[in-house]
Amino acid sequence: xxxxxxxxxxxxxxxxxxxxxxxxxxxxxxxxxxxxxxxxxxxxxxxxxxxxxxxxxxxxxxxxxxxxxxxxxxxxxxxxxxxxxxxxxxxxxxxxxxxxxxxxxxxxxxxxxxxxxxxxx
Length: 121
Fold this sequence. Notes:
This protein has helices at 19-27, 49-57, 76-90, 105-118, and strands spanning 2-6, 9-13, 35-37, 94-96. By secondary structure, it is of the alpha+beta class. The model has no long low-confidence stretch (mean pLDDT 79).
């Protein structure tokens, strides 16, 4: 297991998916205390998937668009802006992402950019 800190964001990589750390991450999910655990959708290549996963962790989701229940899935900007806005509104200060080592570099960049959007000015 390895850990790296980026400002107020800590990325923990547990490539062995140790059950102890997974359980600890799931127990850490306390949105009312500003801490959410985001479980990434397995094998999703959608650029907006992790943002939707963050929304689900907050008990939210984007409203369906006209004619299609999944029209928002490819709307990257709307999904990330919504996740950031709900994160600020909910007072999220810590985001835990189990299995983050399976995310692409682009998804990790999006996650860190989302954390920067939540920083107080």
